Amino acid sequence: MDLMNSLAVSAAGMKVQGTRLRVIAENLANANSTAASPGDLPYRRKVVLFANELNREMGVANVKVKKIDVDRGDFQRRYDPGHPSADAEGYVLLPNVNTLVETMDMREAQRSYEANLNAIDATRQMILRTVDLLRS
Description:
Layout: H1 3-29, E1 46-55, E2 60-70, E3 76-79, E4 91-94, H2 99-135
Antiparallel strand pairs: 1-2, 3-4
């Protein structure tokens, strides 16, 4: 793999991790939201699905966002009969977002993003050194 392919692969990785971070931020922002009215469903956690995509021109496989899907897990239930969104039994449905899981996913995405950024920086340094050698 030449250096330009290395840059393209790392850039694709940064792009998908950036999307993942945006989705995680949305999940965290809606972690404590409730349905607008009784009988409505609250926010559903979103997840990013990845896929490999062969770039025939460069001859490398890049990662891409396949789709942003929703987590079909069960909603949390809290007994709060005075809440406007409470059902007939007094329970309020809360999003299926676990802030601890989201925080760990965020750290993983951040580290993956940084690893791709470091790979780009190392590649850039190698290109600059090569150019310096060619000038000498």
